[in-house]
Amino acid sequence: MSTHLKDKEEKIREILERLIQESAKGIPVVVEGKKDIEALRLLGVEGEMIPVKASGKSLLYAVSKLENSDKGEVILMLDFDRRGKELTAKLKRHLEGSPIATNTTFWGEIFGLIGKDVKNVEGLATYMETLRRKSERSSSLADAW
Fold it and tell me: pLDDT for 21-52, tens place per residue?
């Protein structure tokens, strides 16, 4: 694997580790659906996750539920495609006047690294596995030389 891809894998792992730590502190992670929750669980995120689309309710219902919770902060980790970006922006806008801080740092850092390689959060676990396999294969080839 090129050092570029290995560096990318390491940087994403560092971001995910910080996300795991923040989630473990009790900060809920807002995702789009159940598959996103499953993917983040595979990546080690064990804290509370709130799906905004899985319940079949409106976005305003999800915002109302968040506003009525005792949480002072939420981490927005929605998809990386156009719809995910729009949903992230809408959630931020709707929560702006509330006492809940919205954290999009993890989303932005991961998106900056993966670009168009991954469209949604549910694809993140598979992407990381692919990077790991490429890294192992590349290391084996380098050792053979």
Answer: 999 999 999 999 999 999 999 999 999 998 88
How far is Cα of residue 63 from the mean position of the Cα atoms in its chain?
19
Neighbours of 34 (CB within 10 A): 14
Domains of the chain: 3-135 (3.40.1360.10)
Q: Mention every residue, 6+ apart, whose C-beta is less than 8 A from residue 11.
A: 109, 113
Measured between alpha carbons, how far is 26 from 113 in angstroms, rounded to an integer? 26
Whole-Å CA distances, 82 to 45, 79, 110, 111: 24, 8, 15, 12
Q: Are 62 and 56 in contact (CB under 8 A)?
A: no
